Amino acid sequence: MRVGVLTGGGDCPGLNAVIRAVTKSLIRHGHCKVLGIADGFEGLMGAAPRAQPLAWDQVSGILHMGGTILGTSNSANPLKDEATLAQVARNVRTLGLDVVVAIGGDGTMSLAHGLQAIGLACVGVPKTIDNDIALCERSFGFDTAVATVTESLYRIECTASSHHRVMIVETMGRHAGWLALEGGVAGAADIILLPEIDYDLDVIVQRCREREQRQRYTIICIGEGAKPRGGAQTVREQVAHSPDPVRLGGVAHALRQQLQPHLKSEVRATVLGHVQRGGDPTPFDRVLATRFGHHAAQLVIDGRLGHMVALQNGLIGSVQIAQVANTQRTVPPDHELITMARDIGVCLGD
Ligand code: F6P
Description:
Oligomer: single chain
Distance between the termini: 54 Å
Order of helices and strands: EHEEHEHEHEHEHEEEHEHEEHH
Strand order of the largest sheet: 3-2-1-4-5
Number of strands: 13
Bound molecules: 6-O-phosphono-beta-D-fructofuranose
Radius of gyration: 21 Å
């Protein structure tokens, strides 16, 4: 069997751990040749495919490394038009691939689903710091990103308390607030603003004023997809040709402008940005990524193609890629973490 492995979408810590586990499991099983495809689906879109065999030694010593040894792309669109699709099909034939293990987020799963139309069999592995893939309670990369947000909030708190300021810290996460919520709770934010709960400026002003009287500083953790009631999300840029062209970002600066005139304290904004995507995976993510990679190899070996590895109730299993394509898992407003945050006095902006 010839198995291609690719990493698609934005990178996140733990991708190399998956590549290592898939490759080693398939090599140990025998009868499998593993090829690493360069730069996600982009490696299958050119005049010639860009892929090379992955040997045991090439995937050794990479478990702890951030990024991806294969490269990735979050703007490549193999479904762009008929000509691109035909080229992908030719490249898959040239490489003699029986199946592609696509390690990616909801965008990659949607592309993998679409590619089944040209007979390309895929097995999916969910990755993202956003933790927003449907039917999977935890994607690897998220735990590491939460740790980065948590540490950043502590650093910000040190300077906030010294200067008696209101500090706004913006996390990634797109339309899902998981990263802001878990990072905000772990980093003891006073106000947590999520894309799922539109914020009311008056409520935030009120909370900051209360804190001006007592603690004299306030930490606000805001997900990049958050928006004011009746307002719109803050778009950083549009990436032409990308299957999902909108890039969010900058809401922390917008909120700073809105808040400052109402407060005595100075307000500052920090956008954490791509720092959240880098670094070595935490032990939790290394183990989860290895479990995911191992299970993906099992799906290939068992011929359960068209499936994505998933974590549900703490157990590794799989769901059909068709079930998760073109959908996202956002934070339910009645989620236990939200109720808990409210009960311990965190302001959710509503
Ligand atoms: O999906 C992962 C993610 O990091 C999002 O949280 C963020 O909105 C987006 O990717 C950023 O994309 P880019 O790397 O193209 O700026």
